[in-house]
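Deliverable D2.4 — example input (structure tokens):
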């Protein structure tokens, strides 16, 4: 604990005190309705705990070198990187881990600290308490994504290596497991690779969300982390159409003279077009030029500050008379 205190720059007494009440040091940041109608809660740590989380991430978790098949919340990796691992696929099997964060127990988190990092029991127990809420990993906490990437550390590297030896590609983007091949996977091999993933999940107390189990083939659109991977990663026609419609809405809003509304729309539209340009450069650059024109025109329109003038109105005063007073 003395060594942990020095590494984090926090006294051992303070670490122990915050760890003892860590579960009460979160607030609900958001509730997101999922496709199946259930709610996903995300949490934000209160300042005293968030500061310790930042220190844990900087002093310990940021020093982990993650393998390239783990692409969620890793510096330099994202959903596009995950899709790139599966480009030119002929077949892709997708599995989703049911309730990944709430199913990641404090016991699993403590094992990461004690077995993967090799920390002593008291240090592992303290860090596990600091990084969990009510006995589980809270989604939204600074430390949670890195810890989630490490829960399968015992078996995942061997699974990846075994599949690679058979020409099969494996990746995990947080709770989204993808298995693909550029040549195809025999029926018996499909069953075996799915069984291996399910066994890995079961061994750690997780289960696959059967409703999201997918086997996609080149006869249709193959997607990994919502990007098409039949060739190079790409957005769907529907996604591209929605982004073009957003640009058109911005142009119409500006054309009607609703300048304040156009300014409000601008950041979101810029972000969406930038995302499209990552996958479809020519189309993205054309949309960027249209946005640049609107942005330049908005800079020429003066910002108007509205204020209420004093307006005389007639209001009743008592029973017998009327009086003019400033509104």
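Example output (designed residues):
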């Amino acid at each position: 604990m003395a060594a942990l205190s020095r590494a984090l720059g926090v006294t051992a007494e303070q670490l122990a005190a915050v760890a003892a009440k860590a579960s009460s040091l979160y607030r609900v940041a958001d509730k997101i309705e999922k496709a199946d109608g259930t709610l996903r809660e995300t949490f934000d740590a209160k300042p005293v705990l968030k500061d310790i989380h930042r220190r844990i991430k900087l002093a310990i978790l940021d020093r982990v070198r993650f393998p390239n098949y783990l692409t969620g919340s890793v510096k330099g990796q994202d959903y596009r990187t995950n899709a790139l691992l599966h480009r030119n696929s002929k077949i892709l099997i997708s599995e989703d881990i049911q309730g990944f964060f709430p199913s990641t127990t404090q016991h699993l988190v403590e094992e990461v600290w004690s077995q993967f990092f090799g920390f002593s029991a008291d240090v592992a127990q303290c860090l596990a308490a600091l990084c969990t809420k009510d006995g589980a990993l809270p989604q939204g906490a600074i430390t949670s994504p890195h810890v989630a990437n490490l829960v399968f550390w015992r078996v995942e590297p061997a699974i990846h290596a075994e599949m690679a030896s058979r020409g099969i590609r494996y990746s995990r983007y947080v709770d989204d497991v993808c298995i693909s091949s550029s040549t195809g996977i025999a029926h018996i091999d499909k069953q075996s690779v799915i069984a291996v993933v399910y066994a890995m999940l079961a061994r750690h107390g997780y289960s696959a969300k059967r409703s999201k189990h997918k086997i996609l083939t080149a006869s249709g659109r193959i997607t990994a982390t919502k990007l098409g991977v039949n060739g190079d990663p790409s957005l769907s026609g529907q996604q591209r159409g929605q982004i073009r419609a957003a640009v058109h809405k911005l142009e119409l809003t500006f054309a009607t003279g609703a300048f304040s509304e156009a300014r409000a729309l601008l950041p979101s539209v810029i972000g969406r077009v930038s995302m499209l340009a990552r996958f479809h450069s020519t189309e993205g650059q054309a949309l960027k030029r249209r946005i640049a024109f609107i942005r330049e025109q908005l800079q020429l329109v003066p910002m108007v500050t509205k204020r209420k003038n004093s307006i005389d109105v007639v209001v009743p005063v008592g029973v017998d008379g009327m009086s003019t007073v400033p509104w």
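The beta strands are 26-33, 39-45, 91-96, 169-173, 176-181, 214-217, 223-224, 227-228, 312-317, 321-326.
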